[in-house]
Amino acid sequence: MKFFTTTHEYNQPWSLVTSALWQKYPHHSTPHVLSVDVIDQQVVRDPSSGIVRLRTQRLLTIQQNVPRLLVKLFGVAQPTSHVLETSEVCPATAEFKSFSTNLAWRDMLVIDESMRYTSRPSSNSSPTTLCEHQVSITTGLSQARVRDYIEEALLKRIQGNVQLGRKALGEVMDRIAVAATVTASSSEAIATAAVSMTCE
């Protein structure tokens, strides 16, 4: 079994980061994610606290080459697979957490991934967002040398995908911020024009 744990701080407020998460795919920086489909979504209210959360299940279609050793040992050559993601968003506590797991090849390989985004206060300017990311890789192989080789290869690929994902998320956040600025400018221009017409 291999573990991968990392943290990353985004210099953006939680609301912007989480908005970008829903618009992250498809993206040119992450071509291995072909599509994302929402298969279930519901609002859940905690009966004791009254806190409301949005719970969502999404199906991600992934296309990436399988390590050659897996192909040789098990005949796994299918490049397209699916990942099930379950997420919960709580605006009251500014927390977004998700859990993902692969649906294909589970008899020989299980990859579990969890992510948690929380708001962090900042003494300098606006609040930032902390991302805590954990991945575990388990293969059902008895030969330690082969098992370690495959798990290490998959771990390196996931670490590379994490960097690509951060880049994609950053670009989406920039796009949202620009769109918000344009909208605000347009609204201000319309309001100014309306006032001018009223004064004439």
Automatic annotation (TrEMBL):
Residues 1-181 form the PRELI/MSF1 domain. GO terms for cellular component: mitochondrial intermembrane space. This is PRELI-like family-domain-containing protein. It comes from Catenaria anguillulae PL171.
